[in-house]
Amino acid sequence: MLTFTCRSTGYDRYLAGGPEALEDRSPKPSLVWNRIPEPIREKIKDLALKESDLSPRELAVCFTDTEKYFVSEGKENQ
Questions:
Q1: Helices and strands counted in the chain (H then E)
Q2: Which domain holds residue 56?
Q3: How far is it, in rounded angstroms, from Cα 25 to Cα 58?
Q4: How far apart are CA 73 and CA 58, in angstroms?
Q5: Could you read off the pLDDT of 25-49 as tens digits, one per residue?
């Protein structure tokens, strides 16, 4: 049995957008709060290719020092 909240929410969506508003929506967020922006990711990739002998930790420290943008060692492979 649907709760009042579910029915009213669905009905509100129907009133606002018609039958199309009742279609399934993706549950995933459109924006991830900790995703590294694409231009920064490209800089990290370029540095990793240029300094291929560095470990992930050394690469993160080097990037943070040179670009003044903090990344942790686990973020390079994101």
A1: 3, 0
A2: 36-78
A3: 42
A4: 8
A5: 777 777 777 888 999 999 999 999 9
Residue 28 within a domain: no
User: Is residue 49 helix, strand or coil?
Assistant: helix
The pair phi, psi for residue 66, each rounded to 5°, is -85, -35
SS3 annotation, 9-52: HHHHHHHHHCHHHHCCCCCCCCCCCCCCCHHHHHHHHHHHHHCC
In a domain, 27, yes or no: no
Q: Is residue 16 a part of any domain in this protein?
A: no
Tell me which residue of 46, 28, 40, 37 sits closest to 54, measured CA to CA.
46
User: How many Cβ atoms from other residues are within 10 Å of residue 51's Cβ?
Assistant: 12
pTM of the model: 0.56
Q: Which two tokens stand for residue 22?
A: 């009742």
Burial class (CB in 10 A: 0-12, 13-18, 19+), 62: middle
Q: How many domains does the chain have?
A: 1
